[in-house]
């Protein structure tokens, strides 16, 4: 009697590994987004407003 080693993965094991990888990827993305949300990025102190005079506007057809 000869020993046969099965080297291929079964579909159940493959789908479980894929599911775990997807869950880990989503968890990492969620953690990155939540950490980015906690960082207080600086915002401008005054409103940025630029008035463009009518003479400088040209219509190109």
Give descriptors for this structure.
61 residues, 0% strand, elongated
Describe the structure.
There is one protein chain. By secondary structure, this protein is mostly helical. It has one helix at 11-38. The chain is elongated. It starts with 10 loop residues before the first helix and ends in a 23-residue tail after the last helix. The mean pLDDT is 80.
Please outline the helices and strands:
Layout: H1 11-38
Structural class: mainly alpha
The mean pLDDT is 80
Distance between the termini: 86 Å
Largest sheet: none
C-alpha-based Rg, rounded: 29 Å
Query: SSE order in H/E notation?
Result: H
**Oligomer kind:** single chain
What are the low-pLDDT stretches, counting only 5+ consecutive residues below 50? none
Strand content: under 5%
Backbone shape: elongated
Q: What percentage of residues falls in helices of 4 or more residues?
A: 40-55%
Number of helices: 1
């Amino acid at each position: 009697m000869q020993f046969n080693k099965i080297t291929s993965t079964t579909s159940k094991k493959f789908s479980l590994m894929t599911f775990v990888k997807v869950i880990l990827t989503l968890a990492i993305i969620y953690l990155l987004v939540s950490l980015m949300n906690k960082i207080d990025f600086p915002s401008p102190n005054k409103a940025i407003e630029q008035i463009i005079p009518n003479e400088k506007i040209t219509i190109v057809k």
